[in-house]
Structure formats: C-alpha cells, structure tokens
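Quarterly update from the structural biology core.
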Amino acid sequence: MSDQHFGMSMSVEWYTPPRYIRSVRNLLLSIDVDPASCAAANEYIMARTYYTVDDDGLAHDWPGQVFLNPPYGKERGKSQQEVWSHRLISQYKAEITKEAVLLVTAATSEKWFRPLWEYPICFTDHRLAFIDGTGAPQRGNTKGGAFVYLGPQLDRFYALFSPFGYIVTQYRPQHHCAACNGPVTALPTGRMPRYCDDSCKQRAYRLRTTA
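Predicted structure, tokenized:
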C-alpha cells in the first residue's frame, strides 16, 4: 500500500513484511482480494485480485478471502483506517467477504477502532518494520499494530498470530434461564430476559403459585 504509515510524517511506499503475509496466507489458504495494494506488494501477497489507488478499491466488492492493510492518514478530515476498516466489516456482515485479516494501527482510544472489538485481535508486542519496494526495512514506525480477524477459525488464528503478540477477544458473560439453566439470548432492546422462552416462564410461574 502507499500512504502514511503508523506515524510517519511523509508519504512513502511501505509494504507489509512477508513474515506476516505468510501467516495470513496460512490462515486464509488463499487471498482472493487485496483492496488497497500495488503491483510491487502483490508480488508476494499474491492476491487473485488487487486494487491500486488508481482503481479505487472502495468502488468494488471484496468477495471471498480478503487481506486489507488500508491507507493511513486522513482524507477530507476523515481517518482512512476508519473508512476502509468499516467497509470491510460491512462486506463481511453482508456475507460478500467470507473471511479476512485486517492490519491497522493499535489505536484503541480512537472512535473508529470500537467496532473492531467485536472480532479477535492480535496486538503486536513490537513495532512492525514495514519494508520498501526493495525489501529493505523502514524506520520511523512509532506505534504498535493490530491484526483483526473476521472469520470462524479462532483457534487457527491464535496459533498463527500469537507469536507476534497477544490475542484479545471481547468477554461476553453467559446468561442462563432461571428455570432450566439453559442459555438465554438478549432481547432486541439489549435487555437480558430471565427465562429462555415462554414455556420456562410459565413453568416458573406454576412452581411459585403451587409452592
């Protein structure tokens, strides 16, 4: 990709190092789409389809397995990481994207990062040394990275990415029915019901009234 990366003060060509791409490919098995790339980066990412800045990846759907390292910086006052990461989530929820790995700044205090907490994240325990077009590591990265996984293979994601840092998932307490102890599902309002269904609610009522 081509843009400002992780705190750099000038726009340069910085690419995701191959060691991380190997883990991405081992997880996804293949990369169908890289929406924000270039010919040089795709020599080792090897996406079946990739879009350059001239192609405008946002103008296309991203079907199948996707790797996304979005442009950084801002455009018209809006974070490019926000625009691209939220588009990926939209494509995933629409079942156009089947599985994806997203690489962004570990900017946990930023509002745009909040939707990413819904998915497993590998926070790197080091600063990523991006490479230039010759393969040489680039200095100047001042922030950590976050690999966000959208897909069903949580155990495999852990195995492949835990060597890079710490895997974090959102904790969701398990709620149980007061009558049968089975799991309950939140109502559309977000409130947790006391019973899993009407039959359990009626059973509990009968027990109370006959006690």
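The two ends are 69 Å apart (CA to CA).
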